[in-house]
Predict the structure.
Amino acid sequence: MSTTTAGVLFVLSLVVALVGVHRPFGDHMFRAVSGARQSRVERGVYRLVGVNPAAEQSWGVYTRSVLAFSAVSILFLYAFQRLQNHLWLSLGLDPVVPHGAWNTAVSFVTNTNWQWYSGESTMGHLVQMAGLAVQNFVSAAVGIAVAVALVRGFARSRTGELGNFWVDLTRITLRILLPIAVLGAIALMIGGAVQNLSGGADVTTLTGGSQTITGGPVASQEAIKELGTNGGGFYNVNSAHPFENPTTWTNWIEIFLILLIPFSLPRVFGRMVGQNRQGYAIAAVMAILALASITLTNVFELTGHGTVPQAVGAALEGKEVRFDVSNSATFAAATTLTSTGAVNSFHDSYTALGGMMTLGNMMLGEVAPGGVGSGLYGLLILAVITVFVAGLMVGRTPEYLGKKIGSREIKFASMYFLITPALVLTGTAAAFATGNNSTALNVGPHGLSEVLYAFTSASNNNGSAFAGITVNTPWWNTALGLCMLLGRFLPIIFALALAGSLARQQPTPASEGTLPTHRPLFVGMVVGVTVILVALTFLPALALGPLAEGL
C-alpha cells in the first residue's frame, strides 16, 4: 500500500468515526449542560464554593465569574511553579524562573499551552499533575461554557440571564471531560504510553554510554491534552515522543480526541436552539474548511517543493518514521485547525507551503472545528457577520435564528475578530522593531515566518511553534504571555456581551425575506466570509513569509 493510499484511508476512518459519534456524543453534551438534576458530587462542589446552582447570571456576572476564576488560576499556577522545589515529587528540580512561570501560568489557563521549556527537565510530577493537567481540564471547560452561554443567547428571549458559570464549569468537567479523558488514558496506556511516578531510570546503551529514561504520569496528561485541545506535552518533543504517542493507532486516537468535542458541539447548538438543521449547517462549514486544509497540507508535504523532497518523494525531515509523512501532515492540520498546538512532527521543517497551511489554519480563527468551545462561538460570530453582509446586499435588516443583528450586535462581532489580527501583527512588528527577531534561527522569509508563527500561535491560543526560534527570554515570555492573555479573554468578553444582547431581544418571526441559514447557500457564504476575512487581513504577511519562500 502506498503512503498516499494509507494517508487517505487514515483520514477517511477519522471522518467515519467523527460522523458516527456526532449525534450520540452531541446529545450527551446537550443533556450535560441543559439538565436540571444535580449529582451528589456536583452538589458537594457547589456547597464547597458557596454557589447556588438554581441562580442564573447576567452576561456581566457570567463574564466576571470567568475572569475571576481565570485570574485565581493564574496566581495559583504561578505560585505552584515558583515553589516547586518545596513540593512532593519535585524530582529535585529548581523553581521555575519568574518570567517563565508567568508565561506558563498564562499559557495553561488560556488553553494555549505554549511551552518555552522541556517538561521532563523543568517541571516536577506534582506540578505536571496538579498544576498543568488540572488546567487542561478547567480551561477547556471554560471554553465550552462560554460557547454554551452564547448559544443560550440565541435560544432565549426577553431575559438577561445566560445560565450559571459555576454550574456549567462543574458539569462540563465532571460529565464530559473527565470520563472521556479516563477512557482515552486507558487506551493510550494499552498502546504503550507511560503512566507512573518514576523519577527516571539510568540504563546503559548499546554503545556503552549511559542514558536516563524518564517516566511520569504521561498517559493521563496526554489524554486531556488532546481531548481539551490544550496541547502541552509532558516531554519536550510532545506527541513525537514514543512515551506519549507510541504507535500509528495511538496517533489516530489522539487526532480523534482532538476533533471529538469541537465537531460534536454543533449538535449541542442545534438541540439548544430547537433546530437540528442549524447545527448541521455549522458542522458542514467546519467540515469543508477542515477537509480542504487536511488535503492541501498532505499534498504540499507529499509533493514537497525542493530538490531533496522531490528526489525521495516527500518532505521527510522533522517527521517520525513510525507515523510517515501523511499521518504527520494530518496531525499538523488537526492541531492547528483546533487550538490544540500538540505536534508529532517539526513544523519548522515543513515545506514552505505546508508551513503556510499550519499558519493559515490558525489565522482562520481556529473555527474548523476550532478549540473546545472557542471554535463554536467563533464560527457563530462569523455566521452573524455573514448574515449582516447578506442583509446589506439585499437591503434588509439582518436576522439570525430570529434575532436581529443591529449595530450593537455587529460591533461586538467585529471587535471579536479584530482583536487577534491586531495582536499578531503588532507583536510581529514589535519583535522586528526591537531586534528580538534575532533569536530566530533563520533569516529572510523563513525567519519572518518563525516570528509570525509564534505570535499567531500565542494570540489564537494554539500553542504550537515552528520551533526555529528561541523564546526563553524575558522579552519573549512577557510579550507572548500578554498576547495569550488578551487573545483569550477579550474575545470571550465580546462573545458574552453579544450573548447578553441577543438574549434580551424578542424573536422576529421568519418571513419570505428571511435568509435561510440552514441551506447550502448559507454554508457556502460562511465559508467564503471566513476565508476572505483571513485573506484580506493576513495576505501581506503571508506573501512576505511562506509564499515568498515557496516561490
About this structure: The CA atoms of residues 42 and 170 lie 7 Å apart. The chain has one domain: 3-550.
